[in-house]
């Protein structure tokens, strides 16, 4: 095992992590923070022993491995060589069966090249289509059915959805996708285009968040508006922003968590933005005070 690789034991399994390439995740685990704990709770609520799960952008398996304990089949797609190696190692460490595919997902069969967008987050790789060593496939050409589809592909979310139109039409899966405004723009994808993809297929979008310590689903009437309220600098000034998840449910599907209104969702987002700004300002003042020379 590489000297930089360390095994972390968590309530959701044991994970070998390259502490240099994945310094951010390693720091979270050392601090006792379980990676994407709320996201796992959300997806696990939709699973049955017969479920077929697709993890698009599986990274090292921190989502796919716990989900494999609740589902019949988990199919994990990961195009990055190093992350795929850790994915295989972690599946073995946890003695779970995952169908691992060393491929990227897109709107159609293609090839491409991966480039890192964050030096301390090995999961943040941007895929540029055209020529390159990475094989890219459409999910419709890969599998017959799907019950839960999780997409974390650094801005190529719409392309993955377009390559899954048959599965979405026939299987009506639950879909969880990441919104990264910077990477979406790098792939010439608009938030409006993402929203229209779902509304035209009779899906509703929700923002999962904690309310008094419990997970709720907030109706998301407009992805552009939510992004504007949450990260105005990224939306208006093209600054780099944090990311957030959106859950898309077929209109006929009942949500297993409490649903709050669109107005309450927007109020939560606006309040969170103000809170984050206050915390950043407090941290800046504290840092400035610490470096101020004594009188």
Keywords:
alpha/beta, four-stranded mixed beta sheet, globular, 295 residues, nine-stranded mixed beta sheet, Rossmann fold
Description:
The protein is an alpha/beta fold and 295 residues long. The protein has a single domain, classed as Rossmann fold (3-Layer(aba) Sandwich), CATH 3.40.50.150. The chain is built from 11 helices and 15 strands. The chain has helices at residues 23-30, 37-44, 64-68, 81-93, 157-162, 165-171, 181-186, 191-199, 223-230, 232-237, 262-290; strands spanning 5-10, 13-18, 52-56, 73-77, 99-101, 104-105, 110-116, 125-129, 134-137, 148-151, 174-179, 203-211, 214-219, 244-250, 259-260. The strands form 3 sheets. It has a 9-stranded mixed beta sheet with strand order 5-4-3-10-11-14-12-13-15, sandwiched between helices. α4 (81-93) links the parallel β4 (73-77) and β5. The model has no long low-confidence stretch (mean pLDDT 91).
How big a fraction of the residues is strand?
25-35%
Helix/strand class? alpha/beta
Number of structurally distinct domains: 1
Distance linking N and C termini: 53 Å
Radius of gyration: 19 Å
Fraction in helix: 25-40%
Q: Which overall shape is indicated by the principal axes computed on the Cα atoms?
A: globular
Name of the CATH homologous superfamily: Vaccinia Virus protein VP39
Average pLDDT metric: 91
CATH domain class name: Alpha Beta
Can you tell me the residue ranges where pLDDT is under 50 for at least 5 consecutive residues? Answer: none
| CATH architecture grouping | 3-Layer(aba) Sandwich
């Amino acid at each position: 095992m590489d000297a930089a690789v360390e095994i972390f034991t968590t309530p959701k399994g044991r994970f070998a992590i390259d502490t240099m390439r994945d310094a951010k995740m390693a720091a979270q685990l050392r601090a006792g923070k379980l990676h994407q704990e709320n996201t796992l709770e959300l997806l696990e609520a939709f699973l049955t022993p017969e479920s077929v799960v697709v993890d698009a952008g599986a990274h090292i398996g921190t989502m796919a491995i716990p989900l494999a304990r609740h589902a019949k089949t988990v199919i994990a797609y990961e195009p990055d060589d190093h992350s795929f190696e850790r994915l295989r190692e972690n599946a073995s460490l946890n003695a779970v069966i995952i169908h691992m595919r060393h491929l990227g997902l897109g709107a159609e069969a293609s090839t491409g090249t991966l480039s890192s967008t964050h030096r301390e987050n090995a999961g943040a790789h941007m895929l540029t289509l055209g020529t390159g060593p990475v094989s890219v496939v459409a999910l419709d050409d890969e599998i017959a059915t799907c019950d839960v589809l999780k997409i974390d592909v650094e801005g190529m979310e719409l392309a993955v959805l377009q390559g899954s139109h048959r599965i979405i039409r026939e299987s009506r899966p639950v879909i969880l996708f990441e919104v990264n405004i910077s990477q979406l723009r790098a792939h010439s994808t608009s938030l409006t285009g993402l929203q229209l993809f779902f509304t035209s297929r009779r899906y509703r979008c929700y923002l999962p968040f904690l309310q008094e310590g419990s997970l709720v689903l907030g109706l998301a009437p407009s992805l552009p508006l939510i992004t504007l309220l949450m990260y105005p600098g990224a939306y208006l000034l093209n600054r780099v922003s944090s990311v957030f998840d959106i859950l898309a449910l077929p209109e006929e599907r009942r949500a297993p968590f409490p649903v709050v209104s669109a107005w309450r969702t927007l109020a939560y987002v606006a309040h969170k933005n103000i809170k984050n700004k206050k915390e950043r300002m407090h941290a800046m003042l504290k840092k400035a005070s610490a470096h101020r020379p004594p009188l």
